[in-house]
């Protein structure tokens, strides 16, 4: 989806080693698809998308949303990650798979299971009927770019945990995604923070597919790779299970400015 890097701090220590796939994590999604997956887009298409992104910046948010939709479709088929450099909106499009299925209000479900007393399967309408919380924070990617003052709105994760009835043996939460590959985790204490949401809205509109919709995780004080896109599962576990990018050397506790060898200003 786009880029307009701003506000990134200078690392006080060397950046962490880059993972196997060609692009690093942390954008509104996760990183670009690994080499060998999908069909690369041609140079003319990339340049055309660049022009569309620039037009979106000039013409305003409505045209930009249209540009984002086209960009995300192209990016899903582009293992080179070049479409992740498109301007406008502040975000970059990353995905760890070649193509992500679309979910709508009609077929989206979120399961809450594991070490809970009351496992459940929630539809989008169920989440929309719950109390909603709005948070406005900067978004900070571990690769350096920052998008200031980004609003997210959704259900506090702690609300879902309380409704499920967390068992005494649970100490962590694992998140899975309907892209089929991505996962993340938090400790139970981290998951209960007031600034951790199961987000239904972003930038005062529904979370788009390109941004991880219709439902994504949002962990405000951590680098953006912790905010898993295309959220489909919340599982209570007895131990922390490292997520997708932690297997490539990124920190499990990804506090902005206090992890991954970076000294960025905290998000706020």
Largest sheet: 5 strands, mixed
Compute the number of helices: 5
- Number of strand segments: 10
Helix content: 10-25%
Strand content: 15-25%
Strand order of the largest sheet: 2-1-10-5-6
Q: Please trace the helix and strand order, writing H or E for each element.
A: HHEEHEEHEEHEEEE
Low-confidence stretches: 1-24, 26-65, 74-88
In whole angstroms, how far apart are the ends?
23 Å
Averaging pLDDT over every residue, what do you get? Answer: 77
Shape estimate: globular
Essential attributes:
268 residues, alpha+beta, 5-stranded mixed beta sheet, 5-stranded antiparallel beta sheet, 10 strands, 22% strand
Task: Explain this structure.
- By secondary structure, the protein is α+β, with helices and mostly antiparallel strands.
- The two termini are 23 Å apart.
- It is 19% helix and 22% strand.
- Residues 1-24, 26-65 and 74-88 have low confidence and may be disordered.
- The strands form 2 sheets. A 5-stranded mixed β-sheet has the order 2-1-10-5-6.
- It contains 5 helices and 10 strands.
Could you give a quick summary of the protein structure above?
By secondary structure, the chain is of the alpha+beta class. The protein contains five helices and ten strands.
